[in-house]
């Protein structure tokens, strides 16, 4: 009697596991596995609950082996077996499934072998959107980042040679060779300043001061490059999302790509939960709204009008009557596109046909509301 219930659930679980995205079970397995691996390194705590810790670790390992085998089978069926095996996700899955067993088979002590369970943390990486964005930024800004890295290495080696020349006679143990001076150069350039190696000659201290100032400049450049790259990537993502939303609004269906790009740069996207008041009657208005998804209710005298995807409201505030004439409330989760007064006038000047459409719709609504 249990088969009709068990097998569909198992099939659904296997289907979810075959995908590249992390499932909730995988997140739980990673959390428990890393937690138990940590307890394993605490002698008294592990001795008290050794059987439970071992059981949880083996259970997590069994899950990751099962997950890896399911994905191998899934990719083989799709003809992408080697692509998956050589991809980053495939290598991480293989390491998570095989690292601990191979270490145990090689004769490594169990407590040491289970330290490789830390590799399970890498399985979380593909599911973090911010890390994918970071990867794109690093690829796009690789040129400037590598240029700053070259500057960093040049300063390190120049400073090492300079300090060796100035300090090796007075501090032969710490500055007795260029490789020995490299430790001081890296610590100083990164402004860490551990203090275990310090120049004592006047010229050596001057070089140290210049290296510290150079370190601030180098890391400032890296920070600026990454910040600019992230800002550009965020604007690009927002533009693409807004473009997709605008192109799906029937009101803009007749606009060409250039006009849609123009509109996309002017509109703001707002996501609102149900029963949120967007406009209150009698307040001053300086923007209009387009319903990209969801639904809103306009509270008119004696009745309510529902506006769905493709409709717009609040246009009267931009056509001369700045006082809001009705309350507008979301009835379900809604995504709205907001057009401010200044952008509205600029958009109407660039696209007269859009102005005519809005004006005709506004007159129609005025007649309906009389």
Automatic annotation (TrEMBL):
Subcellular location: Membrane
Pfam family, any one: Ion_trans
InterPro entries for the chain: cNMP-bd_CS, cNMP-bd_dom, cNMP-bd_dom_sf, Ion_trans_dom, RmlC-like_jellyroll, VG_K_chnl
Transmembrane spans: 26-46, 52-70, 82-106, 112-131, 143-166, 206-232
All copies of domain Cyclic nucleotide-binding, residue ranges: 251-365
Membrane topology: Multi-pass membrane protein
Signal sequence coordinates: none
Principal subcellular localisation of the protein: membrane
SMART domains, per the entry: cNMP (SM00100)
Alphabetic keyword roster: Ion channel, Ion transport, Membrane, Potassium, Potassium channel, Potassium transport, Transmembrane, Transmembrane helix, Transport
Alphabetized PANTHER family for the sequence: POTASSIUM VOLTAGE-GATED CHANNEL PROTEIN SHAB, VOLTAGE-GATED POTASSIUM CHANNEL
Protein name: Ion transporter
């Amino acid at each position: 009697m249990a088969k009709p219930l068990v097998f569909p659930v198992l099939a659904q679980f296997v289907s979810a596991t075959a995908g590249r995205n992390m499932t909730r079970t995988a997140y739980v397995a990673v959390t428990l596995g890393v937690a138990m691996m940590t307890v394993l390194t605490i002698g008294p705590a592990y001795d008290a609950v050794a059987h439970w810790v071992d059981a949880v670790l083996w259970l997590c390992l069994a899950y990751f082996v099962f997950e890896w085998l399911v994905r191998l089978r899934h990719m083989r069926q799709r003809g992408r077996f080697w692509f998956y095996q050589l991809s980053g996700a495939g290598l991480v899955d293989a390491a998570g499934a095989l690292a601990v067993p191979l270490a145990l088979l090689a004769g490594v002590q169990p407590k040491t072998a289970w330290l490789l369970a830390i590799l399970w943390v890498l399985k979380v990486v593909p599911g973090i959107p911010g890390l994918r964005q970071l990867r794109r930024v690093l690829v796009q800004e690789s040129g400037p980042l590598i240029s700053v890295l070259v500057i960093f290495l040049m300063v390190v080696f120049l400073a090492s040679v300079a300090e060796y020349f100035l300090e090796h006679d007075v501090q032969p143990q710490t500055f007795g060779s260029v490789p020995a001076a490299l430790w001081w150069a890296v610590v100083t350039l990164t402004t860490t300043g551990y203090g275990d190696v310090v120049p004592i000659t006047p010229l050596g201290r001057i070089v140290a001061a210049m290296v510290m100032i150079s370190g601030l400049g180098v890391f400032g450049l890296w920070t600026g490059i990454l910040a600019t790259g992230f800002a550009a990537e965020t604007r690009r993502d927002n533009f693409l999302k807004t473009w997709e939303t605008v192109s799906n609004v029937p009101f803009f269906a007749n606009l060409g790509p250039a006009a849609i790009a123009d509109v996309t740069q002017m509109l703001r996207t707002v996501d609102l939960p149900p029963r949120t008041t967007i406009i209150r009657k009698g307040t001053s208005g300086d923007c209009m709204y387009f319903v990209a998804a969801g639904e809103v209710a306009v509270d008119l005298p004696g009745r309510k009008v529902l506006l769905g995807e493709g409709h717009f409201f609040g246009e009267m505030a931009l056509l001369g009557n700045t006082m809001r004439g009705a309350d507008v409330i979301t009835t379900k989760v809604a995504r709205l596109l907001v057009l401010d007064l200044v952008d509205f006038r600029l958009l109407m000047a660039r696209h007269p046909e859009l102005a005519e459409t809005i004006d005709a719709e506004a007159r129609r609504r005025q007649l309906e509301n009389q």
